[in-house]
Amino acid sequence: MAKPRVALDIEIPSDVKYIEQVVELATRECRELHLPPQKCSLNVPVALSEALSNAILRGNRNGKGKVRLRAVIKDDSVVFEVTDEGQDFDMDKARVEPTAENVTREEGRGLFLMHRLMDRVEHMYKRGNTVRLTLLRE
Amino acid sequence: MSFSISKQGEVVVVDVEGQLIVGNRQELKQKVLDELERGEKKFLIDFSQTGYIDSSGLGVLVSLSKKIREQGGELRLANLNDDLQTLFELTKLDTLFQISDTRERALESF
C-alpha cells in the first residue's frame, strides 16, 4: 500500500474569482490519475466548486481570510479538503433534496450536488470549517 | 469564460463559453436582462461550448427563466452535453426547462 501523496496544498484569498483556476488544477490531477472521464469533467469540478464557494461566501462571508484546498491521493481514493476561517455551520440542515415543488428555487442546490457527486462528504470544525470530499478510485 | 450574444431572426442566442459558475453568473444574468429590457422576448442559451455549471449558475438560469416568463417571453436551452444533462437530471431542472439537442431544433421550437 503506497503512502498517501499530497498532490495539492493551496491557499487562496476569499474571492470567487479564484475558484475556476483552483478547480482546474484539481481536475488536472484527476485526469493524470486516469479517473473515469465524467468524474474529471463533472463530479470533481462541480463538487469542488460548491465547496470552495461555500467556504468563501458562507464560511468566510466573502470577506477577509483565506481558503485552503488540499488534495490527497490514496490507493483507493482521492480526498479534497476545503478549509475556511469562518464560524461552524450545520451542513445537514442546509442540504435540500430537489423535488417537483422546490425546483423553481434559485439557491440551495450546492450541498445536494456535493453529496450526489462525491462518494463521501464530511464536515469538521476546528478554527474554521473543513469540508472533506472523498471520491473512490474504484 | 465568456458569453457571446447574437441574433437569429427574432431569437437572442447566448453562447456560454467555458464555465457558468459563481464567479461569472451575474455577467450572464445582466446581459440577458439588458436584452429583455430592450424588448427582446425569445431567448436561446446554447451550451455547446460549456464546461461545467455549478449551483449558482443553475440558479441564474432559473432566475432568468422566471424573469423572461414574467415579461411574456420564452427561454430555451440547447446542446447540453452528457455531463450537463446529468446535472439537470440530478437537480430535476430537466423538468423545468425546454431543452433541445441542437440549436436548430431549439430555434424551430419557438
Give an overview in words.
The complex is a heterodimer of chains A (138) and B (110). With 138 residues, chain A is of the alpha+beta class. Chain A has one domain (5-136): Heat Shock Protein 90 (2-Layer Sandwich), CATH 3.30.565.10. Chain A has 4 helices and 5 strands; from the N terminus they run βααββααββ. Chain A has a 5-stranded antiparallel sheet, with helices on one face. The longest helix of chain A is centred in the middle third of the chain and has 23 residues, at 37-59. With 110 residues, chain B is of the alpha/beta class. Chain B is 40% helix and 31% strand. Chain B has helices at residues 25-37, 55-70, 82-90, 103-108; strands at 2-8, 11-20, 42-46, 50-53, 74-78, 98-100. The interface between A and B is medium-sized, with 27 and 28 residues.
Considering the protein shown, what is the CATH homologous superfamily of chain A? Histidine kinase-like ATPase, C-terminal domain
How many beta strands in the DSSP annotation of chain B? Answer: 6
Uncertain stretches of 5 or more adjacent residues of chain B: none
**What is the CATH domain class of chain A?**
Alpha Beta
Distance between the termini of chain A: 15 Å
Tally of helical runs of chain A: 4
Helix amount of chain B: 40-55%
> How would you sum up the global shape of chain B?
globular
Question: How do the strands and helices of this protein lay out in sequence?
Answer:
The complex is a heterodimer of chains A (138) and B (110).
Chain A: E1 5-13, H1 19-32, H2 37-59, E2 66-73, E3 77-83, H3 91-94, H4 110-117, E4 120-125, E5 129-136
Antiparallel strand pairs in A: 1-2, 2-3, 3-5, 4-5
Helix pairs in contact in A: 1-2, 2-4
Chain B: E1 2-8, E2 11-20, H1 25-37, E3 42-46, E4 50-53, H2 55-70, E5 74-78, H3 82-90, E6 98-100, H4 103-108
Parallel strand pairs in B: 2-3, 2-4, 3-5, 5-6
Antiparallel strand pairs in B: 1-2
